[in-house]
Amino acid sequence: MVASKKKNVAKKCLRTAALIVLYLYLVRFEYSANRKLAAKYDFRSAELLLIFQSTAAILVLYVVSKSKQRNIPRLNLVDISTFLPFAILCFISAKCGILVFKSRGIPETSPFKTCLFPFSLEVEKVLFPTNVFRIARVSSLTAVLLSFLCYIRGGEMAYGWLQCVVSRVTYAVFVNGVKKILIDAEYSSLHIFYGIYLALLVISVLVGTVSFSVFDGLKGPPWMRGDFVYTLMSSVLFGIGTFFNQVYLTYFTSPTFVVVLTYVAQESWNLGMGKMYPFSCNTFVLVAMFIALISFLFDLIHESLYDLGKKEMSSLP
């Protein structure tokens, strides 16, 4: 039993390492494509990226899950009337992050979408309680808060960073909920919210595409420009890969650890020059990395002890 346990832990570590390497490359490539697209065209490209990536990834995830499961929850009129206002509110909240990003005047896509995804998983631990050690929860949440101090120190408070946090958490809780429904098969009445949210995203694709071609002053629709289509499709494909990688990486690591990986992939500090200034945002991110590692170890130890105790209890007469 001990040998089997060690073998499972080794496999888990190898999968985690492979996912980390893959995630670093995917985020970096997506970030580069987003910068090129947003700098060459208009800020609405960031909105299109968010819509296209999330919609395409969820549709692919739905098709895969539909092929493996026969019973997908059906819509109910009572549930629709109950969750429709909540879904619309969350959809508007997701748009707030894009509006705040536009007001900053920075010609690149903000890392809020990817950085705040793991933070929403900490919220998921509250909404959907699991067997997670309390110290791991506290340390992981503390690491997230420390990592966000870099935005405050950089003057992001004036641009409403709290709205960005709320919008990204809303979007990411939705993504994690889709995972729970389609992959984990944890059906509940909240599946109505996810279905309505997906419908709103699909509708916004059409609205966003029309507004992009009408108001941006481009010569002709953007889909007729080869460089635009190439850059957009590259970003969408990398975004889908990042989406799936985030989902599966949270199975093996602490959610906060994904935040730190995103900082590394987007070169939030200059590792090549070896510059690590004291009392800077880089120091906070380094502290977040250390605490996230502790959180991951606590989670791993607690899960191992919990599984072992569960097996011993089941073996008792």
UniProtKB/TrEMBL annotation:
The chain crosses the membrane at residues 12-28, 48-65, 77-101, 132-152, 159-178, 190-215, 227-248, 277-301. The keyword Transmembrane applies. It comes from the Eukaryota. Keywords: Membrane, Transmembrane, Transmembrane helix. This is Uncharacterized protein.
